[in-house]
Amino acid sequence: MAEFEVGVAAANAKVTSIFIYPIKSCRGITLFQAPISTTGFRWDRQWLVVNSKGRAYTQRVEPKLALVEVELPKEAFSEGWEPNNNSYLVITAPGMDMLKIPLAIPSETADGVSVWEWCGSALDEGADASNWFSKYLGKPSRLVRFNEALEIRAVNPDYASGYKVMFSDGYPFLLLSQGSMDALNALLKEPIPVNRFRPNILVDGCEPFSEDLWTEIKISNLAFHGVKLCDRCKVPTINQETTVAGPEPTETLRKFRSDEFLFPNKKQQKKVYFGQNLICAESLAQGKGKTIKVGDPILVVKAVSSPADAPI
Fold first, then answer.
1. Pair 247, 196: CB distance under 8 Å
2. What are phi and psi of 126, to 5 degrees?
3. Cβ neighbours around 144 below 10 Å, total
4. What is the pTM of this model?
5. Going by C-beta distance under 8 Å and a sequence separation of 6 or more, which residues neighbour residue 97?
6. Where is the MOSC domain positioned along the sequence (predicted)?
7. Which of 38, 127, 128, 130 is the 20 to 30 A CA-CA neighbour of 14?
8. CA 13, 160, 117 angle in degrees (round to 5)?
9. What is the pLDDT of residues 239-260, one digit of tens each?
10. What is the rounded CA–CA span in Å between residue 252 and residue 236?
11. Average pLDDT over residues 197-219
């Protein structure tokens, strides 16, 4: 990989939005600031809806999850905050009563929970949550929480050895630029919002697809490493307001963001790429001060010269 040191601000690039998704595949929460844990932003993909066999439900097969809204206490995003007996994850959805899940660690466990290649035990959020999601989805369901005390779900060591996630697809953070969104929307007949791509960090003030090239950036003095361009699944084709899937934006992305277009000399996998997967070096270390905020500038430390040099 041809990599070079930059050490300058990426034009006027800065963080413009931060998102977390406490329940995998459900609606996200927009934040002003987010503390970083060993698995990504705190609370991100900590919960998962599973079927009767413990297999993960995602929008790929249950698009109705897109309409499930979640809320956490405002103070939950302050560094070092711990829940008390009056702290809840609040869940709502069209046609459903409000569901309140205590943030205190549940006592019941569920074995055989699986997400992609990973299988392990999780914490079971109980009968009320099970009944709520079973009614909403129309099939037996349970809500489980990642069991940090007993389980580790490792990031692919070929890209980021020693790092881990909870129920994220594969990596702790996903970064996307507004420039990339604007470039895509300029080609679409009907522009789409950024929530189709479910990023954690949205930045603005840089050229479209600059994030493809970033192998190390600093945000708030924290070192983030771009470890793999994000290949996209079906979810971006699902309208997050109606749950209806269509051909876009994948059809348009294939014309200029496919591996055939970006990496003509590499093995073709018929994938499209949009966004950069990140790890945070400081997430593995003890200590305070690991929070990023909207408005933080982006300092590009290292980059590659073209997307063809980026890991995929």
1. no
2. 95, 180
3. 25
4. 0.95
5. 132
6. 147-301
7. 38
8. 115
9. 999 999 999 999 999 999 999 9
10. 12
11. 97
Structure tokens at 1: 């990989």
Enumerate the β-bridge partners of residue 277.
174, 228
Rounded Cα distance, 53 and 112, in Å = 8
Number of Cβ within 10 Å of residue 138's Cβ equals: 10
- Write a three-state SS string for the chain: CCEEEEEEEEEEEEEEEEEECCECCCCCEEECEEEEECCEECCCCCEEEECCCCEECCCCCCHHHHHCEEECCHHHHCCCCCCCCCCEEEEECCCCCCEEEECCCCCCEEEEEEECCEEEEEEECCHHHHHHHHHHHCCCCEEEEECCCCCCEECCHHHHCCCEECCCCCCCEEEEEHHHHHHHHCCCCCCCCHHHCCCCEEEECCCCCHHHHEEEEEECCEEEEEEEEEECCCHHHECCCCCCECCCCHHHHHHHCEHHHHCCCCCCCCCEEEEEEEEEHHHHCCCCCCEEECCCEEEEEEEECCHHHCCC
Q: Is the peptide bond before 249 cis (omega within 30 degrees of 0)?
A: yes
Residue in the block written with tokens 């093995």:
267
Largest CA distance in the chain: 57
Residue type, 27: R
- Please give the single-letter amino acid code of residue 86: N
Tokens coding 217: 């950036």
